[in-house]
Write a structure and sequence with these properties.
Layout lengths: L18 H18 L2 H16 L2
């Protein structure tokens, strides 16, 4: 009978990335998508709205 089990990963499960490393991996793509789809203007608009609400 053939062995149908999935191969074990070479990286142990207990070893995880530090959250800052994960953020450093994701942020460049997130920034590129925000610039490409106009997300930067939306964030600026929302931030200025919140600042106006807080009285600044």
């Amino acid at each position: 009978m053939a062995n149908t089990a999935l191969p074990q990963s070479t990286r142990p499960q207990a070893e995880r990335r530090h959250p800052l490393v994960a953020a450093a991996m994701v942020l460049p793509l997130a920034i590129a998508l925000a610039v490409a789809f106009g997300g930067v203007e939306a964030v600026v608009t929302q931030a200025s709205s919140v600042a106006g609400t807080l009285g600044r």
